[in-house]
Design a protein that fits this description.
The complex is a heterodimer of chains A (631) and B (332). Chain A has 631 residues and is an alpha/beta fold. In chain A, 36% of the residues lie in helices and 19% in strands. Chain A has 22 helices and 23 strands. In chain A, helix 3 runs parallel beside helix 8. Chain B has 11 helices and 12 strands. Chain B has an 8-stranded mixed β-sheet, sandwiched between helices. In chain B, strands 8-9-10 form a 3-stranded antiparallel β-sheet. The chains are: A alpha/beta (631), B alpha/beta (332). The interface between A and B is large, with 74 and 62 residues. The structure holds iron/sulfur cluster.
């Protein structure tokens, strides 16, 4: 994960290309590039391929795609701009980087949408021909930034991307439109040369993608190579740069997005449990990719059910769990609201399902493609009645695998629905993933009850307090469960006041008891305490860790505690927080974990909040932390 | 062993708590009576319900049962049936549960043709919440929530199901025990979503809603019993029939030159005919029986077939190679 440029503090600082002097193959430690263009310009693909190349080059990486909110925004407008940022480094990377060293802007709208994020002296590579009067107008420019000196503080490199691509493909037989769509490969080739990335993986990928359309394959390959050669032969870039391989834990790696990791975590858990996986889901941004991915794993077996609505998605998962499958559902905030009643049913009937909320900026439709962390309290309390359930949140794209797996493990062990929280940033962001050895994954034991002797639906395991998983088809265990308040042990409908309280408290004790197996909190920083600890959860992990690391390098005494388990909270959390004079909770909401910590522990914590549909920048956090340390 | 089961084996130890005189009792009794005839071991039978008076049903059946949440039983049953196709899954719902709050799940499970036996108890009222009008209540209905009469145009439960292209659609009446039993058996024999609208008397909040169809004195003149391949004849003396007059159905009296040959012959596979019958209004009689029955692939068959095909083609899933897929690189 990402070490942003200012952290590198060396070469990266002085030149946006990553190095101060123009020597050939100069070494730089860390670079942040943002590819931006119109939705149709293929910038996501270019970014993803550049990521793959960088991973193969041995760098640590983190990425942040930025999708346009509107799929069919008019071409050339700000609303239609799609971006992809990658931070690659020879050091450990925690975030996709605050500010790009290099911005590739395929049209005026892409420039306008991103220019505010560029540092002075940052490099901006633009396609000169895209800056036509019409395009400038669509982007809302009243004068041409290429000539009006508004870009003087940046290094602007104008490349005739369109013309050069067209020239390279003059004999391809493709029409203008198809040629135009190869511009992303020209740019990818050029940037690949600039940072000495091997393009073999992209060539292989193109061969797979255009297997059935040789003319498109040839055109894309030509454009890619033309871009690469252009970088080498032209004088525009006086040097190429080299970002050496990072020191990473040995093993086999692949790149993975959070949504992919979530899908794989579920498959792995189901395989380990020896049960089929059932996903009931309704398409919603940014969760749909989990459905798409799982739909390809039928042979495991994985059932994917595209339900008629969000409620049916979770309800079908409950039904599948009743029958002994690993039932999961995936959604984002608006869908969570709709699922609440069925989740309550799973709480009451104590059936194991996992509900994944890939959080996005709300309320209501909000900003569907942008991340936020404002569903924590809904996950905690967003059901009627007393209905506690475990909540786990993933910190990084690859961590989504472990968290999805862990969510299933807990659900099955404790016979409870579990909420897994990720967000739009994790969902689409990618990082290298150290492939786990499946034999070393934690055990997931499914013990279906088969013995009718002494069976009762709500008889409990004395240690975990979980009830038996007694699935239809088992002779002698015929029984009825339901949402109505039920008698201890027998599960028969009961309106007894004392029994109701007993059952409510027992279920709450069951969930609270999970804390026994939650690993102790790790303090990054001052183990024995100090002036300030920053507490975070979810995708803010990278930014917080990086900010704390930078400040500690400057001698500031700030520490970091990251929480993966949000309910129950780790049992040593309160004691560890009390080692610090100040507790700051940094989150992308108005202070939801903050409220929990204050309410649970009566600790006078302070908040550090951002609700912009964008992750914290490291610099924002270092500023806030510095002020807190001073104040 | 399974065939040795009797009605009693399906009676649970729970006290039945419907109002005395409620039509639900008759339905429960008939379901418990026909169950042994199916020869299915009790442990393989599951009753799933939503919320409402009818939805208490699973508690009274000595099988697996799941009393779920309002309107969602079809969705929950779909998740179960798809992953456990060998189970015999029944859904018990009502006019409020199935056609109002859960209307969406009902139509989608019908169009998908999930092999569920769906019993929709239609009493044209909300009983559990003590007497509000339901989506099948007639216009002008005076209830607690409509003191000036309901202005909602009602659903016709049969045309709703036909509109969703349900593969088996029938109607019966709570007190018509033999007919009810026959319909249960037909529905059970059908592969695919089987939809039974059971006209059920709520003697507390909507007593006599289906009097014409249940009153022994008069019902023969109001009820048209549908039988596949047979002419549409009804009446106490079986002397009335349905004839087409142009594109409209009319009641005719047999005799005076009108014979059975002039009458419409019921065809369960004719969707247009089913729609026409479902829309019968006085003076036309109310049809009961099977409106529509066709075979088409069931949802869970199709889904599981894809799983089997994937397995045959790709082999059983290998987790490690799945995780290691795509571009990988080794760091030493
Ligand atoms: S309210 Fe009506 S439907 Fe409900 S149990 Fe009583 S009589 Fe039956």
């Amino acid at each position: 994960m990402a070490l942003p440029p200012e952290a590198a503090g060396h070469a990266a600082q002085s030149s946006a290309l990553g190095g101060a002097t123009r020597k050939s193959g100069e070494r730089v430690e860390s670079v942040v590039i943002r590819f931006a263009g119109d939705s149709g310009d293929g910038m996501q693909l270019a970014g993803m391929q550049f990521t793959a190349e960088s991973a193969l080059a041995g760098n640590d990486i983190a990425t942040l795609p930025d999708f346009p909110a509107e799929i069919r925004a008019p071409a050339g407008t700000i609303a239609g701009v799609s971006g992809f940022q990658i931070n690659f480094s020879s050091d450990e990377v925690f975030t996709a980087g605050d500010e790009p060293n290099v911005l590739v802007a395929m049209n005026p709208a892409a420039l306008k949408a991103n220019i505010d994020d560029m540092p002075p002296n940052g490099v901006i590579i633009i396609d000169r021909e895209a800056f036509t009067e019409a395009n400038l107008k669509r982007a809302g420019y009243t004068s041409n930034p290429l000539t009006d000196h508004s870009l003087d503080k940046y290094q602007v490199i104008q490349v005739d991307v369109t013309k050069l691509t067209t020239r390279a493909l003059h004999d391809s037989g493709l029409n203008n439109r198809a040629v135009f769509r190869c511009r992303n490969m020209f740019v990818l080739g050029m940037i690949s040369w600039l940072y000495q990335r091997p393009i073999e993986s992209t060539i292989k990928w193109l061969e797979g993608r255009f297997k059935r359309t040789p003319e498109l394959l040839n055109a894309n390959l030509k454009a890619l190579k033309a871009g690469y050669n252009y970088g080498e032969t032209t004088e525009l870039f006086t040097s190429s740069y080299e970002v050496p391989a990072a020191r990473i834990v040995p093993g086999t790696y692949r790149n993975i997005t959070g949504n992919s990791a979530t899908a794989l975590g579920f498959v792995a858990a189901a395989v380990k449990a020896g049960r089929p996986l059932f996903l009931g889901s309704y398409p919603i941004t940014p969760a749909s990719d989990v459905l798409h991915e799982l739909a390809g794993y039928k042979n495991f077996p994985v059932y994917t059910f595209q339900a008629e609505d969000e409620i049916a998605g979770v309800s079908a998962a409950v039904g599948a769990a009743f029958g002994g499958a690993i039932g999961v559902t995936t959604t984002s905030g608006p869908g969570m609201n709709l699922k609440a009643e069925a989740i309550g049913l799973a709480v009451k009937t104590e059936l194991p399902i996992v509900i994944t909320d890939i959080q996005r900026a709300g309320p209501s439709t909000g900003m569907p493609t942008k991340p936020e962390q404002a569903d924590l309290l809904m996950a905690m309390y967003g059901r009627h009645g007393e209905s506690p359930l475990p909540i786990i949140a993933a910190a990084t794209p690859a961590d989504c695998f472990d968290c999805a797996y862990e969510a299933v493990r807990i659900a099955v062990k404790y016979m409870t629905p579990v909420i897994l929280l990720t967000d739009g940033q994790l969902a689409n962001g990618a990082e290298p993933w150290l492939l786990p050895d499946v034999n070393k994954l934690p055990e997931i034991k499914v013990n279906f009850r088969t013995d009718p002797e002494g069976f009762m639906p709500y008889i409990r395991d004395p240690e975990t307090l979980s009830r038996p998983w007694a699935i239809p088809g088992t002779p002698g265990l015929e029984h009825r469960i339901g949402g109505l308040s039920s008698e201890d042990l027998t599960g028969n409908v009961s309106y007894s006041p004392a029994n109701n309280e007993l059952m409510v408290r027992t279920r709450a004790r069951k969930i609270a008891g999970i804390a026994r197996e939650i690993p102790p909190c790790q303090i990054f920083g001052d183990e024995t305490g100090g002036p300030l600890v920053v507490v975070g959860w979810g995708s803010t992990f990278g930014s917080i860790r990086e900010a704390v690391k930078q400040l500690r390098e400057k001698g500031k005494r700030v520490s970091h505690i990251h929480l993966r388990y949000l309910n129950p909270l780790p049992s040593d959390l309160a004691e560890k927080l009390r080692r610090f004079e100040k507790v700051m909770v940094a989150e992308m909401n108005m202070g939801q974990l903050l409220k929990l910590i204050r309410a649970e522990y009566l600790i006078d914590a302070i908040g550090c909040n951002k609700i912009q549909g964008r992750p914290f920048k490291v610099s924002e956090l270092t500023n806030r932390i510095t002020r807190a340390l001073e104040g | 062993m399974a065939t040795a089961l009797t009605r009693k084996d399906f009676v649970s130890d729970q006290e039945v708590r419907w109002c005395p005189g409620c039509g639900d009792y008759a339905i429960l009794a008939q379901v418990q009576k026909v169950m042994p005839e199916f020869g299915i071991p009790r442990e393989n039978i599951v009753f799933i319900s939503g919320i409402g008076c009818s939805s208490r049903f699973p508690y009274y059946m000595n099988t697996y049962g799941f009393h779920t949440i309002h309107g969602r039983a079809p969705a929950i049953a779909t998740g179960l049936k798809v992953t456990r196709p060998e189970l015999d899954v029944w859904v018990v719902t009502g006019d409020g549960d199935g056609l109002s709050i859960g209307g969406n799940h009902l139509i989608h499970c019908l169009r998908r043709n999930v092999d569920l036996k769906i019993l929709l108890f239609n009493n044209r009222i909300y009983g559990l919440t003590k007497g509000q009008y339901s989506p099948t209540s007639e216009v002008g209905k005076i209830t607690k929530s409509t003191p000036a009469g309901s202005v909602d145009y009602p659903f016709n439960p049969i045309t709703v199901a036909l509109g969703a292209h349900a593969s088996f659609v029938c109607r019966t009446v709570d007190v018509e025990q033999k007919h009810l039993g026959d319909m249960l058996k037909r529905a059970h024999a059908h592969r695919g979503a089987s939809y039974i609208e059971i006209l059920q008397n709520c003697n507390i909040f909507n007593d006599g809603a289906f009097n014409e169809l249940s009153d022994k004195q008069i019902k023969a003149d109001y009820q048209l019993v549908l039988e596949h391949g047979k002419p549409l004849i009804f009446g106490k003396n079986r002397n009335k029939g349905i004839r087409m007059n142009g594109q409209r159905a009319e009641v005719v009296e047999l005799g005076n030159g009108i014979t059975e040959k002039d009458l419409v012959v019921h065809d369960e596979t004719n969707l247009a005919l089913a729609f026409m019958l479902a829309n019968f209004e006085p003076p036309l009689p109310t049809p009961i029986g099977v409106f529509y029955a066709v075979e088409r692939p069931t949802f869970e068959e199709a889904v599981n077939k894809q799983l089997e095909e994937a397995k045959a083609k790709q082999g059983p899933g290998d987790l490690q190679s799945l995780l290691n897929r795509g571009d990988t690189w080794v760091v030493n």
